[in-house]
Each structure stands twice: as C-alpha cells, then as structure tokens.
C-alpha cells in the first residue's frame, strides 16, 4: 500500500478509503492543518491525553510523538477508527490506546450516530446534512474515564457535541482543553455557553494556543508563548 506523509505522519490510506474531498485535503496537506500546528501549544511532555473524535489518527499520532505522552483516543465511526488504527501502526506508536466509541457526560445511554461520506462531517446531529447510514452507539461516562486514567489534557473535534459535553461534564483533573468550535452549528450563543461553563470550572480562554475555531482553554498559567511574529496578521 502506498503511504502519504501528512504533517510528518505516515498515512497508509488509499483514495477509495475516503471521500474525494478528504483525499484532496490529505494530498494538499490542508487536512487538519490548523490542529497540527497548534496542538503542540496544548499538549506538553508527560501529559496523559484523552482525544475525542480522532478521525483517521493524524492528530493522534502527532500528540503521541510528544515525549513521554500517553494517549487514549476515541472515534465513533467504525470505518474511520480502522483507518486510524492503520495510521497508528504505520508510525510505530506504542503509547496510544485506541477505541471505537463515544464518551459523554452523565450515565451511559444510546446515541444514533450519522455516518457521512466526508468523515469529518459524521456526528450525532441528524440535521448536519445528508448521511449514508445510521449507527447505534452506547456511550460511556467521560468523567469516570478521566478519573480512572488520570487524564490531564483533553483534545476534541466532535462536530458540535462539544457544547453539551463541556457544559455537563465535570472534567476532574483536566488542566487543558484543546478543541475545534463549530459555531455554524450552535452560533455565538453556543460559544458563549461553552465559555461560561468552562469559566465556572476554572478554565480561561488561552490565546497562546488558539487560532480561529481551534481554541485552547487552560487552568495553568504557563510561559508567554505566542506564535511567531511573521504569522500574526
């Protein structure tokens, strides 16, 4: 199998494995480019990281290459999860535990997951657009998982479900949260609700690790690390 290299990560994926849109993004290096640049401001050496909505595992692999990091990654879509496992194996990463499933706030319950051709559009939101099939997935409790695995950093790209999760979960022991906001799904009112909910949990918006919809919320006040001057508009 031919292997692409995307953001320095080996990606053994063929054109038939993904949609044409995803394939072009992989070839052009635009796939998750913002996340690939900013993830290193969110995750530090020796972190214990929980990643939700890992997609095909490129960001997972980048996180796993940070020294002494342990990663637990979840992806709801079984087909996408299989591609991610392929990426993890191709990059010889033994510090990643990968699971197909959902973590949510509150007790386990059944969700309908809508699989779309463009894998980054698959979600639990039926109204997000046309879908190819439905899956029934029983969630597990995120706070229990965080406690059991001593997670201190949370990374997520879960297509709008972050709004409910960040409002309802307690997130015990988590110091940093790096996520992609989806304002097209819940508007500025949703972003306001997320921000207020995280502020009540002790998190602040951290501009040192944020750019556009990819944002970092943090509790700890680290060094004043900003992007290079030439990158500032």
Automatic annotation (TrEMBL):
A molecular function (GO) term: methyltransferase activity
Superkingdom assignment: Bacteria
One biological process term in Gene Ontology: methylation
The name this protein goes by in its record: FkbM family methyltransferase
Organism taxonomic ancestry: Bacteria, Pseudomonadati, Pseudomonadota, Alphaproteobacteria, Hyphomicrobiales
Domain Methyltransferase FkbM: 71-203
Keyword Transferase: yes
Organism: Mesorhizobium neociceri
NCBIfam families: fkbM_fam
Keyword list, A-Z: Methyltransferase, Transferase
Keyword Methyltransferase: yes
CDD domains named in the record: AdoMet_MTases
């Amino acid at each position: 199998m031919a292997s692409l290299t995307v953001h320095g990560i080996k990606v053994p994926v063929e054109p038939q494995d993904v949609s044409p849109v995803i394939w072009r993004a992989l070839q052009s290096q635009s796939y998750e480019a913002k996340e690939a640049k900013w993830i290193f401001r969110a995750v530090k050496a020796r972190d214990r990281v929980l990643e939700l909505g890992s997609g095909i595992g490129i960001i997972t692999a980048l996180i796993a290459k940070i020294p002494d990091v342990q990663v637990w990654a979840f992806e709801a879509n079984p087909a996408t999860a299989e591609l991610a496992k392929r990426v993890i194996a191709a990059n010889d990463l033994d510090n990643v535990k990968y699971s197909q499933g959902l973590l949510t706030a509150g007790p386990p319950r059944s969700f309908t997951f809508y699989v779309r051709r463009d894998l980054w559009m698959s979600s639990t939101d039926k109204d997000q657009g046309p879908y190819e099939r439905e899956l029934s997935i029983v969630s597990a409790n995120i706070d229990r998982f965080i406690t059991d695995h001593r997670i201190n950093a949370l990374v997520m790209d879960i297509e709008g479900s972050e709004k409910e999760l960040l409002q309802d979960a307690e997130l015990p022991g988590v110091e940093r949260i790096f996520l992609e906001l989806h304002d097209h799904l819940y508007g500025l009112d949703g972003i306001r609700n997320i921000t207020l909910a995280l502020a009540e949990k002790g998190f602040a918006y951290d501009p040192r690790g944020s750019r556009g919809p990819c944002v970092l919320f943090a509790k700890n006040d680290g060094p004043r690390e900003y992007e290079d001057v030439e990158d500032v508009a």
